[in-house]
Design a protein that fits this description.
The structure holds two protein chains of two kinds.
Chain A lengths: L1 H57 L6 H15 L4 H22 L3 H5 L1 H36 L3 H7 L13 H4 L11
Chain B lengths: L5 H33 L12 H28 L3 E2 L8 H14 L5 E5 L6 E4 L7 E5 H6 L2 H16 L2 H35 L5 H44 L2 H13 L30 H6 L5 H12 L2
Parallel strand pairs in B: 2-4
Antiparallel strand pairs in B: 1-2, 3-4
Classes of the chains: A mainly alpha, B mainly alpha.
């Protein structure tokens, strides 16, 4: 009776341990999904704001039609993006196009003084920040999820239930990666 | 300070809240016990029950429970904080940076309050992240730019995330209760001396205990405050660091602290009992800018210069 009882206790302990590990992974996976949804909400907000912004500034920035077209094009590409990597790349391009627009708008004092534009700019700034904070949060939680899956003993459970590592939201855009070239030669 | 992750930090704070409440309960019991022995002659043919001990314990337990439930609203109303209107364009930036920080920390949005006071300051309160309130002064909104305000809100959100707010709110309420009880104790203590001379039933050991008891009553409010301050000072460094982790922009918080420090006038709306909850000392005491033994004991906040230096060093790492 003794060894048998010992075996039963041992099996029960193993079983409880597997359940605990499994639940930990499920919790993390849901947090990752939720983190991604947060990014999604903010991206949608940005996509909704951009046509509004472009229409408002069009009248003031008639000489910058090309920049405005680029923003619209990048926005439309981002709306139709699928998957984490694709979305990350296209959103990166949109961020680049928007920052060019904001840099150019510095040349138009009447534009900057417009209350409507100021409000839109604050909204867009906040949305941009929210996207990057949501991305930061998502990447942190996705990293935690991946570590839990890849380290022992999580890797056994993850293998048993066929878990896959989540993609990180990386900045793919060339302009954000590039090292800026600085020209210090004196002009004559 | 050893590096601890956020979950260990939270459970450490919850544990410490319980320990602090336990310490206060012991103290309340001690106060009541003294009453029972010296005034009601408990165990010497006087009252059959330790009435005062029970009353004091109940009072202590009740104020701890009450502070957990109502501490936040008491603190807010005592500093004249007003819940902001969700549609007021004046507070658009404040709402936006708070939303940003709630996304970065993964916490629910706190309720936002504004205190009509020209001196820049801010604090957070509430019993848990689901019932958190963040209050800022009008002066803070006026003097800081967007990034600096974001840094301050990130600092406050870290207090929320670490459960500092629960700890601080309970400590604030209990310090108040200790002051009240010890006042009561002292007043009746004076009256008790007269009675003591008539009685010959107590030996020298009893007299010694009585003296110790009196000393405890006299020192209690001071000790309670020192405890509150010690708890507060550690929290500030930690909230600075984890706030910087949220914004990834420690320099903005550093320059916010510089501006808050440069505004010399004290924040009049914020009462003494709430001082340890604020981002910078609202009373403008000199001691918080000094280092050394006395500052370590009596300052509610670490020296701002040191905090700014630490934040800058995070930026260049």
């Amino acid at each position: 009776m003794g060894p048998f009882l010992f075996l039963v206790i041992f099996v029960v302990i193993i079983f409880v341990w597997v359940i605990a590990q499994y639940n930990k992974l499920v919790t993390l996976r849901n947090q990752v999904t939720n983190g991604w949804k947060q990014i999604d909400v903010q991206l949608k907000r940005r996509h909704d704001l951009i046509p509004n912004l472009v229409n408002t500034v069009r009248g003031y920035m008639e000489f910058e039609q090309e920049t405005l077209e680029k923003v619209i094009k990048a926005r439309n590409a981002a709306v139709s993006a699928t998957g984490v990597a694709d979305a990350a790349a296209k959103e990166g391009e949109l961020t680049g196009a928007l920052s060019r627009l904001f840099a150019l708008s510095e040349n138009y004092p009447t534009l900057k003084a417009n209350e409507n534009v100021q409000q839109l700019q604050e909204e867009l700034t906040s949305t941009e920040n929210k996207i990057s904070f949501a991305r930061q949060f998502y990447n942190d939680i996705a990293t935690k999820f991946n570590i839990a899956q890849q380290t022992f003993p999580g890797n056994i459970i993850a293998g048993m239930f066929n878990y896959q590592a989540s993609e990180l939201f990386e900045v793919k855009e060339a302009a954000e990666r590039e090292v800026p070239t600085v020209n210090l030669s004196l002009k004559k | 300070m050893t590096a601890r992750n956020i979950y260990e930090q939270q459970s450490a704070n919850k544990r410490k809240t319980v320990i602090v409440m336990g310490l206060f309960a012991v103290f309340f019991g001690f106060l009541g016990w003294g009453f029972d022995v010296y005034f009601f002659r408990f165990g010497q043919g006087g009252l059959p029950f330790p009435v005062a001990t029970i009353v004091a314990l109940c009072f202590g337990g009740w104020s701890a429970w009450w502070s957990l439930q109502n501490g936040a609203s008491t603190v807010l109303s005592s500093s004249g904080a007003i819940l902001i209107d969700d549609n007021d364009p004046k507070y658009q930036v404040l709402r936006d940076v708070t939303d940003e920080m709630s996304i970065a920390s993964g916490l629910p949005k706190p309720h936002l309050y504004v205190i009509p006071d020209p001196d820049p300051n801010a604090f957070a309160t509430g019993k848990d992240p689901d019932h958190a309130c963040v209050a800022v002064t009008e002066g803070l909104l006026e003097k800081l730019n967007r990034e600096e305000l974001q840094g301050v809100i990130a600092h406050e959100m870290s207090h929320v995330r670490n459960y500092d707010i629960r700890m601080m709110t309970v400590v604030a309420a209990l310090v108040g209760a200790v002051m009240l009880l010890s006042e009561v104790g002292l007043r009746s203590g004076g009256f008790g001396f007269g009675r003591k001379r008539d009685s010959s039933s107590r030996g020298s050991g009893g007299a010694l205990m009585f003296v110790l008891w009196l000393i405890a009553i006299i020192l209690a409010p001071l000790l309670a405050q020192i405890l509150a301050m010690a708890v507060s000072r550690q929290r500030e460094y930690l909230a600075d660091a984890s706030g910087a982790e949220l914004t990834r922009n420690p320099n903005a918080l550093a320059s916010a602290l510089q501006k808050i420090d440069a505004a010399v006038e004290p924040t009049k709306s914020i009462k003494k009992g709430t001082a340890h909850m604020c981002i910078a000392d609202p009373l403008g005491k000199d001691i918080n800018n000094k280092e050394g033994f006395f500052a370590e004991i009596f300052g509610t906040h670490p020296p701002i210069g040191k905090r700014i230096m630490l934040l800058h060093s995070m930026a260049y790492r």
